[in-house]
Design a protein that fits this description.
single chain; about 190 residues; alpha/beta; 6-stranded mixed sheet; rod-shaped; DUF3782 domain-containing protein
Length: about 190
Amino acid sequence: MATTADDVWRLLGELIEAQKEARKETDRQFQETDRRFQETERLLKEQSQRLDQQLGRLGNRLGEFVEWQVRPAVLRLFQERGLDVHELLPDISVQRGQEGLEIDLLVVNSTAAVVVEVKSQLTQGDVDEHLERLAKSKRLMPRYSDVQAMGAVAGLVVPPEVARYAYRRGLFVLAQSGDSVVILNDAQFQPQTW
C-alpha cells in the first residue's frame, strides 16, 4: 500500500497531537512532583521545629538537673573556701525598667554574695555573659549593693580551656567530679569582686 502525502500529513498531525498530550502529561507530573516536594519540605520544616522545641526542653531539663546537682553543694563548697555564706536563693529574676537579670543561684550572707551561673556544658560565651550579668547585678539588685559580690560558673561539662578562661577572669569554677561537685580553682585563687 502506497503512502500518500495526505497519509504523511495525517500521521504528522497525530504525532504532533501525541507530543502535545505527552507534554501535558509531563507538565502535570512535574507539577505533582513539585507539589510533593513542597509538601515534603513543609513536613520536614514542621518536624524540625518540633525537634528544636523538644531539644530545647531537654536542654532546659538537663540544665535543671545540673542546677539540682550544684545546689546542695554550693554553701558547703564556699564555706570551705572561707566564705561564711549561709543563704541560698535559687532562680532569681529581676526586672527594672527595660533591663532584666536572671540568676540561677545566689549564695549570700550579710557581707558577701556569690552569683552562680549553671550550665549543662559551659562555654566561653557563657562565661562572658555571666561577667556582663555580674557587672549590672548590683545596679539591678540594690538590696545587695553593700555586699562584696563574686561570680561563679558551674557545669556538668567544663572544658579545660573554658575553666582556665573563667579562672583568669576571676570566677570560681564548679564542676561535676564523680558523684559530687567541686571547685576547680586552686587555693591561691583570688576572685574578682563587684
